[in-house]
Amino acid sequence: MTIPKVFVNSNMTATFACESCGELHTKDVSKFVGHKTRVRLKYKCKCGHTFSVFLERRRGVRKEVFFKGLLIQNQKAYRGVITDMSLNGIRFKTTDKARIEEDTVAEVKFTLDNRSRSEVLRPIKIRKVFSENCLGCEFVDTNHFDDLGKYFLFHFDQKK
Ligand SMILES: [Zn+2]
């Protein structure tokens, strides 16, 4: 049996459904958010069913996406794909091997899959180099006032 993962919402709650009756439960998980290890919550539903969920502690909702884009550093553009995104950052997979170091800054340019195919350009910081072509990046500014902000609002429904 696989234990489902649930996300922490911006108000430090997590919402999950009972596996047996489908009833939705919202739980205050603020005290777990700072935990370094994986948090497993056990929950007993009104229907009597007991079940577990793993708490996804990364702040903000992370979503799997597939946006083609460019990562630009030192006037070199690396072609690639954004494979997941949250309010805080993205994961960027370059098509070719990239020599990019952690804690450096770059720019990322990509196209959203919204109706107007908005182009987004953002300064980012390379937080983690997972491999030669997979980078964990953080938005330098997490206030998103342009079409990316709207995208988060309408495509990242936290109540799902
Ligand atoms: Zn139930």
Structural features:
160 residues; mainly beta; Thrombin, subunit H; 6-stranded antiparallel barrel; 1 helix; binds zinc ion; PilZ_domain; PilZ domain-containing protein; cyclic-di-GMP binding
Summarize it.
This protein has one helix spanning 147-155; strands spanning 5-7, 13-17, 24-28, 39-44, 50-56, 63-73, 76-85, 89-94, 105-111, 119-131, 134-139.
Structure characterization notes:
Pfam families: PilZ. Residues 56-142 form the PilZ domain. GO terms for molecular function: cyclic-di-GMP binding. The protein is mainly beta and 160 residues long. It folds into 2 domains: 5-56, no CATH class; 63-153, predicted glycosyltransferase like domains (Thrombin, subunit H, Beta Barrel), CATH 2.40.10. 6% of the residues lie in helices and 49% in strands. It is built from 1 helix and 11 strands. The protein has one helix at residues 147-155, and strands at residues 5-7, 13-17, 24-28, 39-44, 50-56, 63-73, 76-85, 89-94, 105-111, 119-131, 134-139. The chain has a 6-stranded antiparallel β-barrel. A 3-stranded mixed sheet has the order 1-5-4, with no helix packed on it. A two-stranded antiparallel sheet has the order 2-3. β6 and β7 form a beta hairpin. The chain is elongated and about 60 Å long. 16% of the residues are buried. The model has no long low-confidence stretch (mean pLDDT 86). The protein binds zinc ion (ZN). Residues 18, 20-21, 23, 45, 47, 49 line the site of zinc ion. Zinc ion binds at residues 18, 20-21, 23, 45, 47, 49.
